[in-house]
Design goal:
Chain lengths: 192, 204, 196
């Protein structure tokens, strides 16, 4: 029950993009087309889930027992960077069609603050193993939801008459603001 | 490239290549911590610290690092300085560190920093890299200061916690919410492009 | 030297130097950081159990930690409970104090919250919320007084105030406190807390 609450709150209430402001770069950069946005979302969800597991293991089995919390940032970023490389190689070997779909987005994910943010937030919130996994999947789905909605709106926006200086990122940000406002409607949905 | 004067390396970071408004880099911290001016300044200074020292180290050892492992080395160097900034804030500015939360360690994925190493410090002399880093940091701090001032003044009627708007002013709470960050930044970005367009016309 | 050897050498050196450097900085700041966290907790204990000179951690579990507030000579004068739970937006972390008989709640303080500014965030404000928590009777569960009262005299001794426009945040705080009180009572009745 608590896991379900965590899952829903990671998707809707504390949405990574619209509440934590994590993953803004791909959110603005890869949200021009619906299908590429969906692929990006799936790639992020995939990497996030694995990151949640890996960072939990590193934090619980290495950083905390040896009392070296100050190496958290360094070790997380290194794990994420190498993880993305591994995932890329693995997918290329195992499933060429999946690689075709996600391939080009994977390298972009290394510098995606959403992944690092996930590792840091899960560590800060003292999540247990299953909570960390659920948080990872939920956050990934939340990211996908936000970026896909955004792409859908932006495809329509192309046809709209937007003032010249606001074209592109400006209007995208304002739309994101309205989306964030709509998402605050979900706050308070989860009770203790 | 060498013909460029040192002052132009500095000035470009303020407007022409401003990391936030022109390059749209480092947006996560820009949006996340600008709900109060003090947080914006603290984040700006922490980022400045990391960018300056990373640029210094990278430009010093650029010849030693083989090309294939350069990104990995940069990341380790940046992450180390980020940790220093994080620990320093926790130790000496605990309330600010609490307010900024995970966004201090997240400086490590601020694209401005890695971007400058890759695009500038790895190719230029120490002095030039430092000037470039200083210019970019100033641009970043100014952007954070601008956005956080707008948000704090409109959202709470205060600046650095001091009441600046009279009691007649009903604070726009939306400015302090995530939605306000997106909208305020979107409008400022539009204004920046508008000004840029006007000055370009004048120059032509 | 071959390229791969150089790559490994450089990466190892970078890693070792930064590791050693961070270990140094970590060591230098460790005590100071621990002191900051400790101080924040102690300050909160002194607020919620007035008269506390020394405190002692009695019990710790997830989202529920019990401290004993004691006078200079070691007499127990109350319990301080550090608890957290889900609020309107994200986790709310708070601390409240009780007397040793568990008859009344002395005070409440909010340590961390990210509720809506101007509405839910008012749970931090003394005049709207916190002062209504002083000296509550906790022999039964506390309940919410709606609509918002302007003075504590309008409430019965088991009621707490609602913030206008932020019922869910007020309720969230109430739930965290009621839940933690139940746990505290159980722990004390079954003698699980030392230091009595």
């Amino acid at each position: 029950m608590e896991l379900l609450a965590l899952f829903i709150s990671a998707i809707l209430i504390n949405n990574f993009v619209l509440y934590y402001f994590l993953g803004i770069c791909p959110f603005l950069g890869v949200s021009k087309k619906l299908d590429s946005a969906l692929s990006m979302g799936l790639a992020v969800t995939f990497v996030m889930t694995i990151t949640a597991v890996m960072s939990w293991m590193i934090n619980t089995w290495i950083l905390i027992p040896y009392n070296i919390g100050y190496l958290q940032t360094v070790s997380f970023i290194l794990v994420i960077a190498s993880l993305v490389q591994l995932v890329e190689m693995f997918i290329r070997k195992m499933s060429p069609p999946l690689y075709q779909a996600l391939g080009i987005y994977l390298p972009l994910i290394t510098t995606n603050c959403a992944i690092m943010g996930l590792a840091l937030l899960a560590a800060r919130k003292d999540y247990g193993f299953f909570e960390a996994v659920v948080f990872g999947i939920g956050s990934g789905i939340g990211f996908t939801l936000a970026i896909v909605l955004m792409a859908g709106i932006r495809e329509q926006l192309d046809l709209a008459d937007v003032p010249e200086p606001l074209k592109g990122a400006g209007i995208a940000l304002i739309v994101a603001g309205i989306m964030a406002l709509a998402f605050t409607g979900f706050s308070g949905m989860i009770k203790l | 490239m060498e013909a460029k004067t040192l002052s132009s390396e500095y000035v470009k970071g303020l407007w022409d290549e401003n990391p936030v408004f022109r390059q749209l880099l480092g947006l996560c911290p820009t949006l996340a911590v600008t709900n109060a001016v003090i947080n914006g300044i603290a984040m700006g200074l922490a980022t400045t610290f990391v960018l300056l020292l990373s640029s210094l180290v990278v430009s010093l050892i650029k010849k030693v690092i083989p090309n294939q492992v350069r990104i990995a080395s940069y990341i380790v160097i940046i992450a180390s300085f980020v940790t220093v900034a994080d620990l320093f804030l926790q130790a000496f500015f605990y309330p600010i560190s609490k307010a900024l939360g995970p966004y201090v360690p997240l400086i490590v994925v601020n694209c401005v920093i890695l971007g400058r190493q890759e695009a500038f410090s790895s190719k230029n002399s120490v002095g030039r890299s430092m000037i470039d880093a200083l210019g970019m940091s100033t641009g970043f701090v100014l952007a954070l200061l601008l956005l956080s001032s707008v948000r704090e003044i409109l959202g709470a009627g205060t600046f650095l916690g001091i009441q600046v708007l009279g009691s007649w002013f009903k604070p726009w709470i939306i400015m302090l919410l995530p939605a306000g960050a997106f909208i305020a930044f979107g409008i400022l970005l539009g204004l920046a492009l508008l000004i840029e367009g006007k000055t370009k016309k004048r120059r032509a | 030297m071959s390229l791969s050897a150089r790559m490994i050498l450089v990466l190892t050196c970078v890693g070792l130097i930064s590791g050693g450097f961070l270990a140094g900085v970590g060591l230098w700041t460790k005590d100071k950081i621990a002191f900051n966290i400790q101080q924040e907790i102690e300050q909160a204990i002194k607020t919620v159990v007035p008269g506390t000179a020394v405190s002692e951690k009695l019990h710790e579990e997830r989202a529920f930690t019990v401290y004993a507030g004691k006078t200079e000579d070691g007499t127990l004068i109350g319990y301080a409970v550090y608890a957290s739970g889900t609020g309107f937006q994200d986790t709310i972390t708070l601390m409240f104090g009780t007397d040793i008989e568990l008859q009344k709640l002395t005070r409440l303080t909010i340590l961390k919250q990210t509720e809506t500014p101007g509405l839910g965030a008012n749970i931090e404000r003394d005049d709207l919320f916190l002062k209504f928590w002083e000296d509550r009777n906790i022999q039964a569960d506390l309940t919410l007084h709606k609509p918002a009262a302007s003075s504590p005299t309008e409430l019965t001794s088991t009621e707490i105030n609602t913030i206008t426009g932020a019922t869910i945040s007020s309720e969230a705080v109430l739930n965290i406190v009621n839940l933690s009180l139940e746990k505290l009572k159980e722990k004390i009745e079954t003698g699980q807390l030392e230091g009595r």
